């Protein structure tokens, strides 16, 4: 219902304009906002302390890594306490950061970028990628039974599921660009894949959308199992990267010297966890995905294979280039400013995960 102009107090129009402009500027220049140094002068470039003081707690959302830590008893070796949170997916991590209830999140390429664009300066402190990126894709395109899409070129004129805060958006936009399909030649249907259940699969099966990026794990396999007989199928996207991901942390956490010291140790063990997962796919399948998650063993093996055979690079040059591509791809579509991807990374942590992985006994890379 419209509010009559006379119901506004005198001067409120100017105040409203001021508030609107202030909010717009806040988000427009979010990439340039940085956490201030603490009262001790600890900044994002200060060397990380060697020792963790008593009483430090890290709140971390990374369920698979949590199971690996607990399974191996690693938490008992840490000089700090972890409070694990069952939080996954970029939108949920961003909300938790906004609420101040999470210190560390795990995400693909886009969630850290989206966090910055929504006013939460974050830094990536650990990064992982597929060992064989030339043969492996993290996402495939699911095609609805009645979509009449046989190849990437057939996406022109179709409805495609799209979530601007997740890596799926990057996959969609880079696919269109590679195929020479203009943005105005398709309809992007905004639909976050993290809102629960097989959202994209259900939208495809009911022909609400014609195509959607699906994880190349149990999500896509279940879709085909259920709906292939109706005409559903999968197609690979063009040859571009979709595999990067890692840990990201609000800058307000990183300028806390006690938490920064704890994070350095955690990232080392996170690297060890990557190596452990690579070397123990069956143990992960049976223990985490089977017993803990309740999946049948065949499905559990699909998931273990999906998260395995990854590596933490010692140099972040490729990761920075990958994130820059994501920024440059999404900024025009989401009406957010482009920024330098180097600002997303805390280089004090660059080699720590790789060193952790290299130190793991019985590692497989």
What labels describe this entry?
alpha/beta, 365 residues, single chain, globular
**How would you characterize the largest beta sheet?**
6 strands, mixed
Proportion in β-strands: 5-15%
End-to-end Cα distance, whole Å, is 61 Å
Order of helices and strands: HEHEHEHEEEHEHEHEEHHHHEHH
Mean pLDDT: 87
Low-confidence stretches: 1-37
Tally of helical runs:
13
Radius of gyration: 22 Å
Structural class: alpha/beta
Total strands: the figure is 11
Shape descriptor reads: globular
What strand order characterises the main sheet? 2-1-3-10-4-11
Helix content: 40-55%
If you had to describe this structure to a student in words, what would you say it looks like?
The chain is an alpha/beta fold and 365 residues long. The model is unreliable at 1-37 (pLDDT under 50). The longest helix has 23 residues, at 257-279. It contains 13 helices and 11 strands. The strands form 3 sheets. It has a 6-stranded mixed β-sheet, with helices on both faces. It has a 3-stranded antiparallel β-sheet with strand order 8-5-9, sandwiched between helices. Helix content is 41%, strand content 14%. Helix 3 (90-99) packs parallel to helix 4 (110-117), helix 9 (257-279) crosses helix 13 (352-359) and helix 10 packs across helix 11 (297-307). 41% of the residues are buried.
Summarize the structure.
With 365 residues, the protein is an alpha/beta fold. Helix content is 41%, strand content 14%.
């Amino acid at each position: 219902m419209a509010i009559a102009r006379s119901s506004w107090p005198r001067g409120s129009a100017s105040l409203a304009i001021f508030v609107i402009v202030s909010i717009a500027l806040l988000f427009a220049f979010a990439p340039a906002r940085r956490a201030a140094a603490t009262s001790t002068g600890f900044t994002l470039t200060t060397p990380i302390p060697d020792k963790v003081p008593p009483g430090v707690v890290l709140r971390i959302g990374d369920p698979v890594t949590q199971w690996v830590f607990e399974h191996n008893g690693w938490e008992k070796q840490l000089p700090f306490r972890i409070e694990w949170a069952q939080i996954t997916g970029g939108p949920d991590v961003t909300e938790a950061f906004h609420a101040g209830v999470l210190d560390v999140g795990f995400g693909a390429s886009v969630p850290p970028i989206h966090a910055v664009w929504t006013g939460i300066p974050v830094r990536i402190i650990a990064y992982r990628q597929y060992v064989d990126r030339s043969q492996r894709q993290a996402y495939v395109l699911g095609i609805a039974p009645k979509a009449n899409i046989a190849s990437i070129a057939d996406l022109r004129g179709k409805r495609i599921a799209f979530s601007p805060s997740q890596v799926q958006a990057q996959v969609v936009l880079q696919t269109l660009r590679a195929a020479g399909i203009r943005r105005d030649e398709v309809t992007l249907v905004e639909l976050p894949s993290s809102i629960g259940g097989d959202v994209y699969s259900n939208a495809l099966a009911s022909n609400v959308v014609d195509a959607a990026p699906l994880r190349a794990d149990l999500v896509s396999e279940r879709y085909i199992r259920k709906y292939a007989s109706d005409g559903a199928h999968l197609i690979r996207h063009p040859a571009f990267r979709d595999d990067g991901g890692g840990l990201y942390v609000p800058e307000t956490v990183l300028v806390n010297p006690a938490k920064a010291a704890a994070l350095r140790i955690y990232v080392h063990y996170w690297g060890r966890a990557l190596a452990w997962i690579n070397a123990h796919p069956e143990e992960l399948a049976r223990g985490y995905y089977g017993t803990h998650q309740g999946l049948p063993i065949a499905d559990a093996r699909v998931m273990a294979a999906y998260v395995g055979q990854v590596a933490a690079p010692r140099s972040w040059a490729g990761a920075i280039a990958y994130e820059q591509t994501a920024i440059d791809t999404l900024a025009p579509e989401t009406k957010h400013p482009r920024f330098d991807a180097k600002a997303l990374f805390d280089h004090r942590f660059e080699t720590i995960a790789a060193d952790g992985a290299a130190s793991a006994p019985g590692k497989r890379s």
